[in-house]
Amino acid sequence: MEIVIRALVIFLFLWLVTRAVGRSTLGELSTFELLLYVTMGDLVQQAVTQQDYSVTGGMLAVSTFALLTVGLSWLQWRFPRFRPVLTGRPVLVFADGRPLEDGMRRERLSMADLLVAAREQGIRSTSEIEYAVLEADGRISFFTHDADQEGAPERPPAG
């Protein structure tokens, strides 16, 4: 039972750490950051199992993490009100041709990062962007001005 309690405490700690780091940095991990998280996992293992190398201890720790993950997923499904707390909310970071500084500052998203994401999606200029949304998973969704797509055509094409 002690392993289950330690696993619960470490799970909550890691959840808080990953939420505090921010979604823009977790969206795309560098090689160093990936190695850092893997190393942190190894260090956490010792805290969870207290040098307990038994199969039962390892299974209990992994099972506790798995059950907590499934439990959080169920909470989001059953009580949608908890979803923003557990996974975060999308944030509008660019609107009407200009960056929204408050949202970008709060999410620690630099203009350079926003421009890189725009270029990766084939957007050549910020004037093409109508809206940009930093999603809860760290990706940035862009909505562009498209004069050809505004509204329905007046007449269906002949043919």
Largest sheet: 4 strands, antiparallel
Radius of gyration over C-alpha positions, nearest whole angstrom: 22 Å
Query: Which stretches are poorly predicted, pLDDT < 50 over at least 5 residues?
Result: none
List the secondary-structure elements in sequence, H or E.
Answer: HHHHHEEHHEE
Shape: elongated
Mean pLDDT across all amino acids? 76
Q: Supply the number of structural domains.
A: 2
| Class derived from helix and strand content | alpha+beta
**Percent of residues in β-strands:** 5-15%
Distance between the termini: 73 Å
The helix count comes to 7
What does this structure look like?
With 159 residues, the chain is an alpha+beta fold. It folds into 2 domains: 2-87; 91-147, 2-Layer Sandwich (CRO Repressor). It has 7 helices and 4 strands; from the N terminus they run H-H-H-H-H-E-E-H-H-E-E. It has helices spanning 2-21, 23-27, 31-49, 55-78, 83-87, 101-106, 111-120; strands at residues 91-95, 98-99, 129-134, 140-144. A 4-stranded antiparallel sheet has the order 2-1-3-4. Strand 3 and strand 4 form a beta hairpin. The longest helix is centred in the middle third of the chain and has 24 residues, at 55-78. It is elongated, with a radius of gyration of 22 Å. The N and C termini lie far apart (73 Å).
